[in-house]
Write a structure and sequence with these properties.
alpha+beta; 2 helices; 5 strands; 5-stranded antiparallel sheet; 35% strand
C-alpha cells in the first residue's frame, strides 16, 4: 500500500474537493482519497505503486492542476 501526497491548485469549495475526489477514486487500485481544502493537499492511498501520471490526469480531468513538477509529489509506501 502507498500514499501519495500532492497539492492541487484552484480548489475553492466542497464541490471542487468532491470533483477531484471522484476523479481520483475512479482510478484502479485507489483505496482512499483525502482532500484538505484549506491547504489544497490531496492524499491518495492506493494498493500498490502509485501511478502519478494517472493521478495528474484525473486532477486535470476534474478541471484543476497539480502544483509543481513530479518532484513535488511525495510517495510513502507501507
Amino acid at each position: 500500500m502507498s500514499t501519495t501526497t500532492f497539492t492541487v491548485v484552484g480548489m475553492s469549495c466542497g464541490g471542487c474537493a468532491r470533483k477531484v475526489t471522484g476523479e481520483l477514486s475512479g482510478i484502479d487500485a485507489v483505496l482512499d482519497v483525502a482532500v484538505d481544502l484549506a491547504s489544497g493537499q490531496v492524499a491518495v492511498t492506493s494498493d500498490g505503486p502509485a501511478d502519478q501520471s494517472a493521478f495528474r490526469a484525473a486532477v486535470e480531468s476534474a478541471g484543476y492542476t497539480v502544483a509543481g513538477s513530479d518532484a513535488a509529489t511525495k510517495e510513502k509506501t507501507s
